[in-house]
Design brief:
The complex is a heterodimer of chains A (600) and B (199). With 600 residues, chain A is mostly helical. Chain A is built from 17 helices and no strands. The chains are: A mainly alpha (600), B mainly alpha (199).
């Protein structure tokens, strides 16, 4: 390493397609994640718009039943696995090393691999629309609807293979972030000085590590049922369709927290900075996040109250579900405590962050409502559930993610998103989402079931469905405002200083955008809010030496090769097993070459 | 320079545990849930098969006891290989790596024999719930043993280079050993739950 002359490693070209295909820089991988996930998010949005257009008026004729089934299934899969999760991953990639004072993640090449496997899985998923129809049995894919007999097309095979790949990608990323956070912290960065965003990332990583294998097993069993003659889930042969539900929700409920905790982490960064006050009750927020994760593994059967679990399990799962409201409430009050008495600046990031508190609370309250078994029995499979889950997923996750986009955009690109357009974006999203999802409470209580492709005129569903559709279009206009803002901003020259918001965490100690090696001098941490401590105690960062000898890992194309090999293995399962065999051979070669590749 | 000393960008870690070892430990935690789900599935379907052959008619405990013994002994061989690697005794390491690989392959041979015998006796994936859950559970365990054999064989092959496994030989063999012992422990659980506990 010391033999490498110059200040930076021999990276070769710093731009151009090849540099992006072989990059192992966490910031570039974060950018790839962010842009790809945003594209998938727009795709999922278009699916939602089509669904709402069909449902705008009774007896709609925009979509036929099967296409409608494909669209609501793909809308959920796209938003969850290709939108919100990778948008979270984009922020993890960008800010885990920067906030803990590291120069990169623990395993830069694995980091690239997780991205390429994600892209492979995502493209496979989306391509199902062209090759014989997308999955159409709902994202939860309840057996026996998914059996060969009930779903004869290839849609559910795409579902199995696509999810296996995306699960692998998330697992690789989660392992990487867990090791990075535990093992790569800057001097003085103790666990109880970690930014809350990092704590939530760590919690999400462990949720993924412990829940994804359960989904993997469920998918393998489904694959065997569909392709290799087993009968795990077909009751007429002695199988048990409820087993699928158990396995799916043992993964699926922790997944809910995988989707929301990154957003909680983001607003726990944004609220203190724009209140000019440290986070109220840091330890309580951290432990609340950890308890949510632990409890999250003990509540899965509340998705299954109507399957006839028996009284005792119903009471236990009802109680554990309600118990989750306690740590969540702790967080809400801590955020309010942070705002209270603060010197608040209402930037766009702050608008989004505050809206998360409001909207997530509404979703949380309805969540407690259907933690009650008799209430849930009424609400199961109605639009009330749709309203609830969108208040937490859109109001909680998406609004939180956009808060992060506006907050960190200057750090990521060196440019400010336009505040006026940003506030327009916020209000369109806020009004649009409330118009779309609040009426769904009324529709659900009024008895409108989910996943029906149309309804009759005299059922009393007309007005609120029209309102919801109008709301959906308002959200779409909001997204256009954001895209325009993005394009407009990226055409400007970079103007952001290191620390435009007066931030407290280490990412603001380096330039905007940061150099490839993140920090000229690895910072030393004395406090939970290191930059504020340094400001108040007159601690100055030591000047960078004139000649930097910082070794960064060289680029590598093996992650791309291995990702391609895994994609081939997946395609083989969908077409011919010979393709899988080819994929296995290439994968073994790639792993070998990867291991022997010098990283110095 | 020290090629074997490459830790990516980190030359020391916060906890003092090497990143790669920590990665393996956390990965094994994930694997626990993987096998836990497969084993749970087996237990849920225990006694739920609508038609035979049933487990007590077909499981051959004496034969599988031998293969279990073989796999247990492979863990002993693995320990000796790690000892050799960590104490600068490459010949000892190579010998016991080879023994571990051979014992692993023997275990896989037993499994192939068992699967074929069951097939002849009329048990396959489609026969009943026992067949489905048994083959998927033990099949995935066998795949893990196979991957372990590949890892150990790669190490053995690499150790014949002029530089051997480099300065970190002990470390590399130890990480492989973590995986190998884990797969072994999983088998002890499977052997107990599937074979030994009466139906």
């Amino acid at each position: 390493m010391a033999t490498t002359a110059g200040t930076l490693p021999a990276v070769g070209a710093h731009s151009g397609l090849w540099s992006w295909l072989t990059t192992v820089d966490h910031k570039r991988i974060g950018a790839l994640y962010g842009v790809s996930a945003m594209a998938f998010f727009i795709m999922g949005g278009i699916e939602a718009i089509l669904i709402r257009t069909q449902l705008a008026v009774p007896n709609g004729t925009v979509l036929e039943a099967d296409r409608f089934n494909q669209l609501f299934t793909m809308h959920a899969l796209t938003m969850i696995f290709l939108g919100v999760m990778p948008l979270g991953a984009a922020f993890f990639n960008w800010f885990v090393p920067l906030q803990i004072g590291a120069r990169d993640v623990a395993f830069p090449r694995l980091n690239a691999l997780s991205y390429w496997v994600f892209i492979g899985g995502g493209l496979l998923f989306v391509s199902s629309f062209i090759f014989g129809g997308a999955p159409n049995a709902g994202w939860f894919a309840y057996a026996p609807l998914t059996s060969e007999r009930m779903s004869p097309g290839s849609g559910m095979d795409f579902y199995v293979v696509g999810l296996l790949m995306l699960g692998l990608s998330s697992l690789i990323a989660a392992l990487n972030f867990a090791v990075t956070i535990i093992n790569m912290r800057a001097p003085g960065m103790t666990m109880m000085r970690l930014p809350v965003f990092i704590w939530m990332t760590l919690v999400v990583a462990f949720l993924l590590i412990l829940s994804l294998p359960v989904l993997t097993v469920a998918l393998i069993q489904l694959l065997f049922d569909r392709s290799f003659t087993t009968h795990f889930f077909s009751p007429e042969e002695g199988g048990n369709p409820i087993l699928w539900q158990h396995l799916f929700w043992v993964f699926g409920h922790p997944e809910v927290y995988i989707l929301i905790l990154p957003s909680f982490g983001i607003i726990s960064e944004v609220l203190p900075v724009f209140s000019r006050k440290p986070l109220f009750g840091y330890a309580a927020v951290v432990f609340a996040g950890v308890s949510i994760a632990v409890l999250g593994f003990a509540v899965w059967s509340h998705h299954m109250f109507t399957t006839g679990l028996g009284t005792v399990p119903q009471i236990v799962f009802s109680a554990s579900t309600m118990a989750i409201a306690v740590p969540t409430g702790v967080k809400i009050f801590n955020w309010l405590g942070t705002l209270y008495g603060g010197n608040i600046r209402f930037t766009t990031a702050m608008y989004f962050a505050v809206s998360v508190i409001v909207l997530f609370t509404i979703g949380g309250v309805t969540g407690v409502m259907h933690a009650t078994v008799p209430v849930d029995t009424q609400q199961q499979d109605t639009y009330f559930i749709v309203a609830h889950l969108h208040y937490v997923l859109f109001g909680g996750s998406i609004m939180g993610i956009f808060s992060g986009v506006y907050y960190w955009f200057p750090k990521m690109t060196g440019r400010f998103l336009h505040e006026g357009l940003g506030k327009l974006h916020f209000w369109l999203f806020f009004i649009g989402m409330n118009l779309t999802f609040f009426p769904m409470h009324f529709l659900g209580v009024g008895g409108m079931p989910r996943r029906i492709y149309t309804y009759d005129a005299d059922l009393g569903f007309d007005t609120w469905n029209m309102v919801a559709t109008i709301g959906a279009y308002i959200i779409a206009v909001g997204m256009l405002a954001f895209l325009w803002n993005f394009v407009r901003t990226m055409r400007q020259a970079p103007s952001a200083p290191n620390d435009p918001w007066g931030g407290a965490t280490l990412e603001w100690a380096t330039s905007s955008p940061p150099p490839e090696h993140d920090f000229d001098v690895v910072p030393e941490v004395h406090d939970r809010d290191p930059l504020w401590y340094n400001r108040d105690h007159g601690v100055t960062t030591p000047a960078a030496p004139a000649h930097l000898h910082i070794h960064m890992p060289p680029p590598s194309y093996y992650p791309l090769v291995l990702g391609g090999a895994l994609l081939l293995m997946g395609i083989g399962v969908l077409s011919h097993l010979a393709v899988t065999a080819l994929g296995v051979v290439i994968a073994i070669y790639a792993v070998w070459a990867w291991t022997l590749e010098p990283t110095d | 320079m020290a090629a074997a000393g490459a830790h990516g960008v980190a030359h020391h870690s916060t906890t003092g545990i090497d990143n790669r070892k920590l990665l393996m430990w956390i990965f094994l935690a994930s694997e626990c849930l993987f096998f836990g789900s497969l084993i749970s599935t087996y237990l849920i379907f225990k006694g739920k098969s609508l038609v035979g052959p049933y487990p007590d008619e077909i499981l051959d405990i004496p034969v599988t006891s031998i293969s279990t013994f073989v796999l247990l002994m492979s863990s002993l061989a693995m320990v000796l290989a790690v000892y050799g690697a960590e104490h600068g005794r490459p010949r000892m390491m190579k010998l016991w790596l080879l023994v571990t690989i051979l014992l692993g392959l023997t275990f896989l041979g037993f499994q192939v024999y068992e699967f074929r015998t069951f097939g002849h006796e009329g048990l396959n994936l489609a026969t009943n719930q026992f067949g489905a859950s048994f083959f998927v559970l033990t099949g995935f365990h066998g795949t893990h043993v196979g991957v372990g054999v590949l890892i150990l064989a790669s190490l053995l092959l690499a150790s014949f280079r002029r530089s051997g496994l480099g300065r970190e030989a002990g470390f590399h063999v130890e990480i492989a050993g973590l995986y190998w012992h884990f797969v072994d422990i999983v088998w002890i659980v499977i052997f107990t739950l599937v074979y030994l506990i009466p139906q």
